[in-house]
Design brief:
Largest sheet of chain A: 7 strands, mixed
Distance between the termini of chain B: 54 Å
Strand content of chain B: 15-25%
Order of helices and strands of chain A: EEEEEHEHEHEHEEEHEEEHEH
Number of helices of chain A: 7
Number of helices of chain B: 12
Strand order of the largest sheet of chain B: 2-1-4-5-6-7
Number of domains of chain B: 2
Number of domains of chain A: 2
CATH topology of the largest domain in chain A: Rossmann fold
Structural class of chain A: alpha/beta
Strand content of chain A: 25-35%
CATH superfamily of the largest domain in chain A: Nucleotide-binding domain of ferredoxin-NADP reductase (FNR) module
Radius of gyration of chain A: 18 Å
Helix content of chain B: 25-40%
Structural class of chain B: alpha/beta
Helix content of chain A: 10-25%
Oligomer: heterodimer
Distance between the termini of chain A: 37 Å
C-alpha cells in the first residue's frame, strides 16, 4: 500500500526569475511524475510546509518539472530562499486533467491573468505540441505592468507560431509598451473565434476570473465549454481533508479545473 | 473468576482491550489492566448499559495526531497491535463507516487508518437506557447494532448474550469456549429491552426531521437570519467538531527535525477562520456564519448526496460539549 501523504525528493536544477515576485523552479524528481496538463502537485518545502501548484511545463516532457510560483505566503517565502541543488518534496499528480480530447478540432480561447499563466502554459504547450489536432489557439494574457509579465521571451515566440494568436495587456503601462492598457477583459471586446463551438479556458486571480467568465458567457460561450481553474486550499490533495470544497465538488479531486456549468450553482464561486 | 471476567481476561491475554468505565458519572474509554480482573471476581465491570463514551471512537482509528510522513527518509507504516473496543454503541459504528469511505477505501487509502481498522475488533453493546442527548433514531439508526461490529452483545444477568456479526466475531466466541446457546427467554428479554429503548428514544425526540434534509438545507443556505439565530451563542471553541465521531477533516503540518522533516496529520475543524484560506489571502468562508452553515451542508447534504447516508449518528456529543448550549436538533428540526 502506498502512503498518499509521503512526498518523494525532487532536486532544484535551476530557477528562473520571471518577475520580482514570480520564479520558475525547474525540478528533477527522483521518479517521474506522470502529470497531464491541468493536474496539480503538492510541493513540500522540507520542514516548512506544503502547498499545491500546477506544473507549467509540457506534459510531453516529464523528466523535469517546471513550477512557476508567486511568493505570497509562508511556504512560498521559504521556497524562494532555496537554491539550485536543494531538495524539495513532491507528491501527485492529483486532480483532473484538461479534457484535451474534447478540445480537438475546435478553437481554444485561453485567458490568463498574472501568475495564472503558469498552468495555462502547460496547457498551451500540450496543445501546440500536437497543433494539428486543434483548429486554432488564442491566448489573451493580462499582467499588472510590463515587468509583471511571466515567460516574456516565450510569449514573443508564441506570437510567431502558426495557428496561434496571442494578445497581451497591462493594467499600468510604461513608455515602451505598445499594446493595450487595461485589465485583461479589454482584450475581449472582440472574440475572434466561433463562440458556439469554441472552448474557453481561464486562470487568474478570483476577481479576474469572475469578470472574464461573465464576458465569455455574454459573448455566447456555453457554460459547459468554459473551463475555470478553481484552486482552493487543497491541503491533502487526495479528496479527504475537505478544505477545498466548492459546492458539491472537491477542487483537489473533481477539479481544480471545473466548468462554469459545474460551479454556477455554487454561492459566490469566485470568493 | 466469573465467566465475564474470564472472557475479558482471555481477550486481554492477546490484545489491547478498551472498555467503557464510569469516571465522575460520565462514561469514558478505559484501557483494561489485568489487575482489574484479578482475584475470584471482576473488580471492574464495564459500563455497558450506559450510553456511548465521551470520547469518539475515531480516537482509536483516526487518531487526533499521527505522524504520516518523514522526509527525505520515507516513513513506512508499522503494523499496530490488535485492539478490542469492548462495548461500542450503534452510534459509534456509523462513524466508522464514514471514515472507511473517506480514508479507508479507494485510490488514496490511508495506510495508517487501514492498518488500525484491520487490527481493531469491535464488540458492540446494546444501549438500553438512552439519555436526553440521544437521537440515533432520528437518523434511522437503532440503539443496538445489527451490522458494522464483529459481535453484538447485551448484558444478560451476570453474563453476556452475544450475536456474532462477522466470521472474526464467530471465531472469537467459539475460541473462548465460554458460551452456550442462548435460550428463547434470553433472546425475548433482549428484544423487550431493545423495544423499550426505541420507545424511550421516541419520547425523547417525538418529532421526526424533514425527510429530505439535503434539499431543505440547500434552500436555507442563503437565509442569513436563520443561521444567525442558531449560531448566536456559539463561542467558536470547535468542541462540537472535535467530539463529533464523524468529523474527519484534517490538516497536514510539517515540522523540521534534526535530520530532515516530519509531517503530522491532526484533526482540523471547519469552524477555524483560516480553514479555507489560501496562500494569497483569499478566504471563501471568512465569515463565521458561512462556516457555521457549512457544517450542516457538509454532514446532512453533501455527505448524504455523495454516500447515501448522513454523516451523523445522533450520538449527541456535539450538544453535550457545547458551551453555548446549541442543540443541533433545534437547527435540523426547523428545516
Amino acid at each position: 500500500m502506498t502512503n498518499p501523504y509521503q512526498p518523494i525528493p525532487a532536486t532544484i536544477l535551476k530557477t528562473i526569475d520571471e518577475t520580482p515576485t514570480i520564479r520558475t523552479f525547474v525540478l528533477k524528481p527522483e521518479q517521474e511524475v506522470p502529470f497531464l496538463a491541468g493536474q496539480f502537485i503538492e510541493l513540500t518545502v522540507p520542514g516548512v510546509g506544503e502547498a499545491p501548484f500546477t506544473p507549467s511545463s509540457s506534459h510531453f516532457q516529464r523528466e523535469q518539472l517546471e513550477m512557476t510560483i508567486m511568493k505570497v505566503g509562508r511556504a512560498t517565502s521559504a521556497l524562494f530562499e532555496l537554491k539550485p541543488g536543494d531538495v524539495l518534496g513532491v507528491r501527485g499528480p492529483y486532480g483532473k486533467k484538461y479534457p484535451l480530447e474534447r478540445f480537438e478540432g475546435r478553437e481554444v480561447y485561453i485567458v490568463g491573468g498574472g501568475v495564472g499563466l503558469a498552468p495555462l502554459r502547460a496547457l498551451f504547450l500540450a496543445l501546440t505540441h500536437e497543433i494539428g489536432k486543434y483548429k486554432r489557439i488564442l491566448l489573451r494574457y493580462g499582467a499588472r505592468t510590463p515587468a509583471d509579465i511571466v515567460y516574456k521571451d516565450q510569449v514573443k515566440e508564441w506570437q510567431r507560431m502558426d495557428r496561434v494568436d496571442v494578445d497581451l495587456s497591462v493594467d499600468v503601462s510604461d513608455e515602451r509598451w505598445t499594446r493595450k492598457v487595461g485589465v485583461v477583459t479589454c482584450l475581449m471586446d472582440e472574440i475572434p473565434c466561433d463562440v458556439k463551438t469554441s472552448v474557453a479556458v481561464v486562470c487568474g486571480p478570483p476577481i479576474m476570473m469572475k469578470f472574464v467568465t461573465q464576458r465569455l458567457l455574454d459573448a455566447g460561450f456555453a457554460g459547459e465549454n468554459v473551463y475555470l481553474s478553481m484552486e482552493k486550499n487543497m491541503s491533502c490533495g487526495v479528496g479527504q481533508c475537505r478544505h477545498c470544497r466548492v459546492g458539491p465538488y472537491l477542487a483537489c479531486k473533481d477539479g481544480p479545473v471545473l466548468t462554469w456549468d459545474q460551479v454556477k450553482g455554487v454561492e459566490d464561486p469566485f470568493a | 473468576m466469573t465467566a465475564r471476567a474470564q472472557w475479558l481476561s482471555a481477550l486481554l491475554a492477546q490484545y489491547s482491550v478498551f472498555v467503557p468505565a464510569i469516571v465522575e458519572d460520565r462514561v469514558h474509554w478505559h484501557r483494561l489492566e489485568s489487575a482489574e480482573l484479578g482475584g475470584d471476581g471482576d473488580n471492574l465491570t464495564p459500563a455497558l448499559r450506559r450510553i456511548r463514551a465521551a470520547e469518539p471512537v475515531k480516537s482509536f482509528l483516526f487518531t487526533s495526531r499521527e505522524k504520516v510522513a518523514t522526509f527525505p527518509e520515507r516513513l513506512e507504516p508499522a503494523e499496530p497491535k490488535v485492539q478490542v473496543l469492548f462495548g461500542v454503541k450503534s452510534c459509534d459504528l456509523l462513524p466508522i463507516r464514514v471514515h472507511d469511505r473517506i480514508v479507508g477505501e479507494g485510490e488514496f487509502q490511508d495506510p495508517f487508518y487501514a492498518a488500525r481498522r484491520k487490527n481493531t475488533i469491535l464488540i458492540a453493546a446494546d444501549c438500553p437506557v438512552p439519555e436526553d442527548s440521544c437521537f440515533c433514531t432520528l437518523l434511522g439508526l437503532t440503539p443496538y447494532a445489527t451490522e458494522g461490529a464483529d459481535i453484538a452483545l447485551s448484558v444478560a444477568g451476570d453474563g453476556y448474550l452475544v450475536e456474532t456479526l462477522t466470521e472474526r466475531g464467530e471465531q472469537l466466541v467459539r475460541a473462548s469456549g465460554l458460551f452456550q446457546t442462548a435460550t428463547d427467554v434470553h433472546v425475548a428479554r433482549r428484544e423487550e429491552e431493545r423495544k423499550a429503548a426505541l420507545e424511550a428514544l421516541g419520547r425523547i425526540n417525538p418529532k421526526p426531521w424533514n425527510p429530505d434534509l439535503p434539499r431543505a438545507i440547500a434552500a436555507k443556505m442563503s437565509d442569513e437570519a436563520f443561521w444567525r439565530k442558531h449560531a448566536a451563542t456559539c463561542v467558536e471553541c470547535f468542541g462540537c467538531l472535535m467530539a463529533c465521531p464523524t468529523c474527519y477533516c484534517f490538516l497536514l503540518f510539517d515540522k523540521a527535525k534534526e535530520k530532515g522533516a516530519e509531517r503530522t496529520r491532526v484533526w482540523d475543524a471547519c469552524y477555524q477562520a483560516a480553514y479555507t484560506r489560501v496562500g494569497g489571502g483569499a478566504n471563501p468562508r471568512g465569515e463565521f456564519l458561512k462556516r457555521f452553515a457549512n457544517r450542516f451542508e457538509c454532514k446532512w447534504k453533501e455527505f448524504k448526496n455523495d454516500h447515501g447516508f448522513y454523516a451523523c449518528s445522533g450520538c449527541g456529543r456535539c450538544l453535550t460539549v457545547c458551551m453555548g448550549k446549541i442543540d443541533i436538533r433545534n437547527v435540523l428540526g426547523e428545516l
